[in-house]
Amino acid sequence: MSSPDLFYLAPLQGFTDFVYRRCYQQLFGDIDEYYIPYIAAGSGSKIRNSQFREILPENNGQLLVVPQILCANGEETKQLAGELRNFGYRKVNLNLGCPYPMATNRGRGTGLLENPEKLKEVLDILFGEFDFEVSVKFRAGLICEHTIFDRLELLGSYPFRKMIFHPRTANQLYKGTANRELFARLASMSQHPLVYNGDIQSVSDLDEIKRQVPNQNEWMIGRGILADPFLVSRLKGHLPNQATQRDMKWQFHEMMLESYRQIFPDQGQVFEKMKAFWSYFQRVLPTRTKLLNPSKKPEI
Ligand SMILES: Cc1cc2nc3c(=O)[nH]c(=O)nc-3n(C[C@H](O)[C@H](O)[C@H](O)COP(=O)(O)O)c2cc1C
């Protein structure tokens, strides 16, 4: 018998923030782990406030969260992992997937995946100087899909708790579709089971990957959930009826708005946060709902 499916919320900086995670959990509650968007050393080695509040334990309550670090070398790793340890975290995720030149040019994200010496330095510190359960999230490479095959031996020599693979190269950003065939190839070679991540939006997407990787049962989903908060219920076959869905969508929206209002005294900030939420959430609303005309007060 195959193991039950496990679903993880992908980290999306600016979207899956602690407000989103808490409201989602309260209403939908069907996620096995919530991955927190990355923290990184900013100017003067300081973590930005917007990233810092995401890891504050009081903002995450009882949620099963996994914080993520974006780093380029041992020194940054020590700093960021040290912050997380001081907050009492037991798990950490290493970002080897960030595709943006601002990160990769500094040797972070996919840039670190491309540099085996620095990667080893980071992993030796993460596994040797801390006692985290470590997971890793990676792309295929900066430009070429070969990088991940070249790096599999190094990654496989560390006892990762999870290896999450988004089968695109960094220079693709989010263009085209995730390469499921590439995922299947890597899964067949990896000693660790892989978590699949990329472009899951429907039951048929999941079925298609299961057809290519029959025992696949761990899934990380980001934009699909943002655009349809019932996606995981749909995938689990527990979709509530239409009237309940309508009520829950309304409640979700109200909960998000109220939470942002409590956190941000400035209405402009609340509007910006809600605009980010709406940019995906509007896809489950009736098509006549026009939400993103900034000159008009949004209605729902
Ligand atoms: C706006 C945005 C922000 C993201 N922020 C992060 C991040 O902080 N850490 C990370 O590992 N991935 C980040 N990602 C990548 C997602 O976690 C995920 O890998 C990607 O969206 C593909 O999964 P999906 O198709 O299910 O959304 C981000 C993606 C987007 C679009």
Protein architecture, described:
By secondary structure, this protein is an alpha/beta fold. The protein folds into two domains: 6-236, Aldolase class I (TIM Barrel, Alpha-Beta Barrel), CATH 3.20.20.70; 242-284, no CATH class. The chain contains 14 helices and nine strands. It has helices at 18-27, 49-55, 57-60, 74-86, 101-104, 110-113, 116-128, 146-156, 180-189, 203-212, 223-227, 231-236, 242-263, 267-281; strands spanning 6-9, 33-35, 65-66, 68-69, 91-96, 133-138, 162-165, 194-197, 218-221. Strands 3-2-1-9-8-7-6-5-4 form a nine-stranded parallel β-sheet. Strand 6 (133-138), helix 8 (146-156) and strand 7 form a beta-alpha-beta unit. The longest helix has 22 residues, at 242-263. The site of flavin mononucleotide has 22 residues, from helix 11.
Essential attributes:
single chain; 300 residues; alpha/beta; TIM Barrel; 2 domains; 9-stranded parallel beta sheet; globular; binds flavin mononucleotide; oxidoreductase; tRNA dihydrouridine synthase activity
In short:
This protein has helices at 18-27, 49-55, 57-60, 74-86, 101-104, 110-113, 116-128, 146-156, 180-189, 203-212, 223-227, 231-236, 242-263, 267-281, and strands at 6-9, 33-35, 65-66, 68-69, 91-96, 133-138, 162-165, 194-197, 218-221. The protein is an alpha/beta fold. The site of flavin mononucleotide has 22 residues, from helix 11.
